[in-house]
Amino acid sequence: MYDILTEQLKHYTVLWRETSALYEEWAKKRGLSYYELLVILSIMEPDGPCLQKDICTHWQLPKQTVNTILKNFAGRAWITLVPSEEDRRGRVILLTDAGRLFMEATASDLQAHERSVWQKMGQENASALLESTALYNKLFKETDSNETA
C-alpha cells in the first residue's frame, strides 16, 4: 500500500541529510570538519564575547567535542581562551590575528556561497522555504509536547 506521508518523510530525511552533507563537503574542501565550521560560525557571529557553553547550546554539540575543537584551534594559534569575568568556570574565546583572518575569510566565503544560492532560488522560493521550515519546526515541537505530556 502506498502511503504518501511515509514517502514524504523519507524524502524530507534524504534532503535534510543531503543539506548537512553539502555543508560538510564545503567545510572539508577548506580543511575543516563540519563541527569545526559550526564553531567558527559561532565565534564569528556574536557581538560580545563567545563562550564554549554558548557554542554547545547554539548547535547542541557535546561539551567535549567543542572543547577538542577549541584546543585544536588554540594549537593552530587561531584562538586563546581566557577565564570569563562573569563565570570563572567559563572561558571566553579570543581570536588571534591569524585566527581572525582565517575565520573571517571562512565565514565570508560561506555567506557569499549561501547568498548566491538564495538569490538563484528567488524571493518566492526562499520565502516558501523559510515559512515551511518554520511551520515544520513549530508543529514538531507542539506534537512532541503533546505526546510527552
UniProtKB/TrEMBL annotation:
The entry's keywords: DNA-binding
Keyword Nucleus part of the UniProt annotation: no
Domain HTH marR-type: 25-126
Entries under Pfam families matching the protein: MarR_2
InterPro entries: HTH_MarR-typ, WH-like_DNA-bd_sf, WH_DNA-bd_sf
GO molecular function: DNA binding; DNA-binding transcription factor activity
Superkingdom of the organism of origin: Bacteria
Protein name: DNA-binding MarR family transcriptional regulator
